[in-house]
């Protein structure tokens, strides 16, 4: 048994050892370098740290050291799990506050395009369009009842121009492997919409890439549309059933008439197709239409919107620069431009038509002196301008830019600016910063929709289209600023969880969405927004001409 003094000696020794251990812990350096090395060794990893590392953790007791090591272990395990799962990066949400210059704003539009595309691919791949709230496919009646991938074809050249390479490759693969109208088309499809969206999109794909697959697909579709031209006048019918080959017109269109904007907006695509394939059948179909229109008498120099394809007589005397007429005038000018200004007949007919409309349909509002093109119904003037009609500002600017007569060029550039301003007023006066389907001019209102049936917005591009041309030709900064306002409005009011949706009333906040992401959001609106923030060399307007769906065709100088 230990004696009393020996017990005291042992106790003192134990106390001294405890003191030494505790002191050693207390006087550890604040730098946790050794701790980090130890943790790294525990995971089989040793990393050299650069001088000046400021990520110090002051470790003063065992509990703090233990907590810090646990946190590092958790971080390591999370990182390893993420690497093993290989999850794709999340779609970056556009930061609209960061776009303080043209480059930043262009990148924002590109991110918006990717977000909308990824949503379509996830929820509606192969369908014509997307319902971004319901998160499923959607198809308008113009596409019949088949899933034709309209969004894929309409978006193709936009994806290519923006440099969205993976998205473009996905579109290319789907078109190559799946796009077959004989197999997919069901019911009656619109000849006009099929031409401007599918044929136009495929031909522009070919023009940009020289991929023969696109040309073959475009040719096969146009061949299926040709029975629509089998009428006494050669004026094509509006609808065709691909399965039966039978064509017809809309019953509501002035007793089964053909519509000016539809049969008058085929020439760019058909003429280019003949140019590429060497097969004149497509060009000849359009030449028959053009020759017939040239031979007709025009009331007061104007083109009514309805024409009977059987007896060759005009239908109801209704006139417009918007719905059911718009792209007819656009194609008169653009056919002249795309042929290297060699098709002078179309330019002459364009000049005559525009001058007649200026005399009969162009008005100025009071008190703001806003210029607008009204609709005519017989002798009655309807003081309304449609969002569709706002495209004409861009058309006038394009004409002015290519007009050799200086006086005429100044006149139409001024008119283009006036229309661009009027359409901006329709946007400014809404609650969401984007304008309605149509707006009125009365004793009480200017550039405001009156009817509830005219207050909606379905992602239309025509106003931004006009600002794009005005920016390219004038370099007035306000057009870029106005376009950026639209970007912010889209993000604030039209963006939903899985894409972008139209709204039912632009004067009401919060908005009510229509749950439709139109295919022309990609073909037109996103493209024009992207290009307005791009250099002029991106789709140089002396080298390219856009069809009415904004699909670019090359100017043929030889």
TrEMBL record:
Q: Which GO terms describe its molecular function?
A: calcium ion binding; mannosyl-oligosaccharide 1,2-alpha-mannosidase activity
**In the UniProt entry, which residues are flagged as the active site?**
193, 326, 437, 462
Spell out the disulfide connections.
390-423
**In which pathway is this protein known to take part?**
Protein modification; protein glycosylation
Q: What organism is recorded for this protein?
A: Mesorhabditis belari
Q: Which cofactor does it need?
A: Ca(2+)
Report the superkingdom from the record: Eukaryota
Keyword annotations for this protein, in alphabetical order, are: Calcium, Disulfide bond, Glycoprotein, Glycosidase, Golgi apparatus, Hydrolase, Membrane, Metal-binding, Signal-anchor, Transmembrane, Transmembrane helix
Q: Which GO terms describe its cellular component?
A: endoplasmic reticulum; Golgi membrane
The regions listed as transmembrane in this protein's record are none
An example of a Gene Ontology BP annotation on this entry?
A: N-glycan processing
Name where it mostly resides. Golgi
What is the protein name stated in its UniProt record?
alpha-1,2-Mannosidase
According to its UniProt record, which protein family does this protein belong to?
Belongs to the glycosyl hydrolase 47 family.
Which Pfam families does the UniProt entry name for this protein? Glyco_hydro_47 (PF01532)
**Reaction catalyzed:** N(4)-(alpha-D-Man-(1->2)-alpha-D-Man-(1->2)-alpha-D-Man-(1->3)-[alpha-D-Man-(1->2)-alpha-D-Man-(1->3)-[alpha-D-Man-(1->2)-alpha-D-Man-(1->6)]-alpha-D-Man-(1->6)]-beta-D-Man-(1->4)-beta-D-GlcNAc-(1->4)-beta-D-GlcNAc)-L-asparaginyl-[protein] (N-glucan mannose isomer 9A1,2,3B1,2,3) + 4 H2O = N(4)-(alpha-D-Man-(1->3)-[alpha-D-Man-(1->3)-[alpha-D-Man-(1->6)]-alpha-D-Man-(1->6)]-beta-D-Man-(1->4)-beta-D-GlcNAc-(1->4)-beta-D-GlcNAc)-L-asparaginyl-[protein] (N-glucan mannose isomer 5A1,2) + 4 beta-D-mannose; N(4)-(alpha-D-Man-(1->2)-alpha-D-Man-(1->2)-alpha-D-Man-(1->3)-[alpha-D-Man-(1->3)-[alpha-D-Man-(1->2)-alpha-D-Man-(1->6)]-alpha-D-Man-(1->6)]-beta-D-Man-(1->4)-beta-D-GlcNAc-(1->4)-beta-D-GlcNAc)-L-asparaginyl-[protein] (N-glucan mannose isomer 8A1,2,3B1,3) + 3 H2O = N(4)-(alpha-D-Man-(1->3)-[alpha-D-Man-(1->3)-[alpha-D-Man-(1->6)]-alpha-D-Man-(1->6)]-beta-D-Man-(1->4)-beta-D-GlcNAc-(1->4)-beta-D-GlcNAc)-L-asparaginyl-[protein] (N-glucan mannose isomer 5A1,2) + 3 beta-D-mannose
Q: Indicate how the chain sits in the lipid bilayer.
A: Single-pass type II membrane protein
According to the UniProt entry, what is the EC number of this protein?
A: 3.2.1.-
The listed locations are: Golgi apparatus membrane
- The residues the record assigns to binding Ca(2+) are 548
């Amino acid at each position: 048994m230990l004696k009393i003094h020996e017990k005291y000696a042992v106790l003192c020794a134990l106390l001294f050892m405890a003191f030494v251990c505790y002191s050693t812990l207390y006087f550890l350096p604040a730098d946790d370098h050794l701790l980090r090395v130890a943790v790294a060794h525990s995971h089989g990893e040793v990393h050299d740290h650069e001088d000046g590392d400021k990520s110090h953790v002051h470790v003063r007791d065992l509990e703090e050291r233990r907590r810090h090591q646990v946190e590092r272990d958790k971080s390591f395990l999370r990182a390893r799990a993420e690497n093993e799962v290989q999850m794709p990066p999340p779609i970056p949400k556009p930061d609209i506050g960061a776009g303080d210059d043209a480059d930043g704003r262009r990148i924002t539009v590109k991110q918006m395009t990717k977000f909308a595309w990824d949503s379509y691919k996830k929820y509606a791949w192969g369908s014509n369009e997307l319902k971004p709230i319901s998160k499923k496919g959607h198809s308008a009646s113009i596409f019949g009842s088949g899933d034709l991938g309209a969004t894929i074809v309409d978006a193709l050249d936009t994806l290519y121009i923006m440099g969205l390479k993976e998205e473009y490759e996905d579109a290319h693969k789907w078109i190559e492997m799946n796009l077959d109208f004989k197999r997919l088309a069901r019911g009656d499809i619109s000849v006009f919409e099929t031409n401007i969206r599918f044929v136009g999109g495929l031909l522009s794909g070919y023009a940009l890439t020289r991929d023969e697959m696109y040309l073959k697909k475009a040719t096969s579709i146009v061949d299926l549309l040709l029975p629509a031209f089998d009428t006494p006048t050669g004026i094509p019918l509006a609808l065709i059933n691909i399965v039966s080959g039978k064509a017809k017109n809309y019953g509501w269109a002035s007793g089964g008439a053909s519509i000016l904007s539809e049969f008058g907006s085929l020439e760019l695509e058909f003429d280019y197709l003949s140019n590429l394939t060497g097969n004149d059948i497509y060009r000849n179909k359009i030449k028959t239409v053009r020759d017939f229109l040239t031979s007709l008498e025009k009331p007061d120099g104007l083109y009514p919107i309805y024409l009977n394809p059987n007896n060759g007589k005009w239908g109801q005397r209704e006139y417009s620069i918007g719905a059911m007429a718009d792209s007819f005038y656009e194609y008169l000018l653009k056919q002249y431009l795309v042929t290297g200004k060699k098709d002078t007949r179309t330019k002459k007919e364009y000049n005559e038509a525009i001058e007649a409309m200026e005399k009969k349909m162009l008005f100025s509002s009071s008190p703001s002196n806003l210029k607008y093109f009204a609709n005519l119904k017989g002798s009655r003037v309807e003081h309304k301008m449609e969002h569709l009609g706002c495209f004409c500002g861009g058309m006038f600017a394009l004409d002015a830019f290519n007009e050799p007569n200086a006086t005429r060029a100044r006149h139409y550039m001024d008119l283009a600016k006036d229309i661009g301003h009027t359409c901006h007023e329709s946007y400014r006066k809404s609650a969401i910063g984007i304008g309605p389907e149509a707006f009125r001019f009365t004793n009480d209102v200017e550039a405001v929709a009156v009817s509830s049936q005219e207050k909606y917005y379905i992602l239309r591009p025509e106003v931004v289209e006009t600002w794009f041309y005005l920016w390219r030709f004038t370099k007035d900064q306000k057009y870029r600023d106005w376009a950026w306002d639209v970007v912010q409005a889209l993000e604030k009011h039209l963006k939903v969880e899985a894409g972008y949706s139209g709204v039912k009333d632009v004067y009401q906040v919060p908005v009510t969405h229509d749950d439709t992401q139109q295919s022309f959001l990609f073909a037109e609106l996103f493209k024009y927004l992207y290009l307005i923030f791009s250099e002029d060399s991106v789709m140089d307007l002396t080298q390219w001409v856009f069809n009415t769906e904004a699909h670019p065709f090359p100017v043929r100088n030889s």
